[in-house]
Amino acid sequence: MEKKTATRLDIARRAGTSVSVVSRALNNSGYVAKEKKERILKIAEELNYAPNPVAISLQKRRTKQILFYCKNVDNAFNIQLYKGMLDEAAKRGYLVLFNGKVEFSDIRNTLVDGIIMQDEVIAAYYLKNYGKNYHLPVVSAAYGEAAGVGKRLGKAGGQAGRQTAPLVEVDTYRVMEAALDWLEKRGHGKVAFGTPYPADGGNVRTAAFLARMYERGMKNARDRVIAVSRKDPRLAEDPRLLSFREEVEEDINLVNEDYFGKGKLAARLFLERKLDATAVVGFNDEFSLGLIRGFQEQGIRVPEEISVMGIDGIDARKYVSPLLTTISLFPQEQGAMCVRVLLDLIEGKKVRHITHTGFRLMEGESVLSRAAAFRKR
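Structure for LacI family transcriptional regulator, as requested:
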């Protein structure tokens, strides 16, 4: 027969006192005579008393748990973001739960103290449709997309540019500028950009690419954007896009992106369109690794014949040859900062609306200067 779990009532009966006195002794709150407190603690130990964590959370109005909503659990960047959250939360006695579905209908039944969102697109969707009725503290990782979120989410997004959740942001507009400037110093003035999103979809990285290219007098800059999306008229009926679920689902913003697969297709499109570029910047590292694989499958050598650069700084880049040159967004540091901001918010402290985190070039082997490439020919 299974042994009954001891309760505070059992302790009170053994100690000859009330449940309220037992609670004060166990919680170390309120006055209890020293001798009586010691006796209560001894009885609790003898009975192998273990407090109910749900009951404790209800009493203290804290669960010591936070929740990370992330639609793409296969993305290495998101996993590193989560790792940073775990490490930082542990320092402050918190657990970080992971929800791999962007499904908020059961949020009321979830016992957590706050939420971290994967990006500002998902944060805007949540705040518009659920957050107004359920007031949990929310913090979001961000990449400078707030201005374009409303356009990309349409009616569901509402006034996304005015979303109220605090953001922990890496300015990917500046990141793209830094990537293009670094490539230019190595002789790559003619650069293409590969992205899984429409060229006119309001994405910050695309906007930064086009602005920089126009500044350099490149009037055909838009032709250098390889948008692997059915919203590109040239690809609207392309059967190769039907293999990507995100291209056939109506709610594109809530479906996982196959960045690697789209990167491979982007390499083929680059060659089919005979783009006059010596380097390609990928939307992120997984997309860029797909570019490298796609070029290699077509017999194009990277970086001798085409240079490839990424954005993210994921650990997985070191397992691919050539080693991808990228600009690191330091995902673990960003994840840790998301936790710091959220826990400060939970504790009633003032937090900034936008907390910025940094980025840094990580030079690999996938970019060759034009001078070096010329010498190798």
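Residues 76-91 form the longest helix (16 residues).
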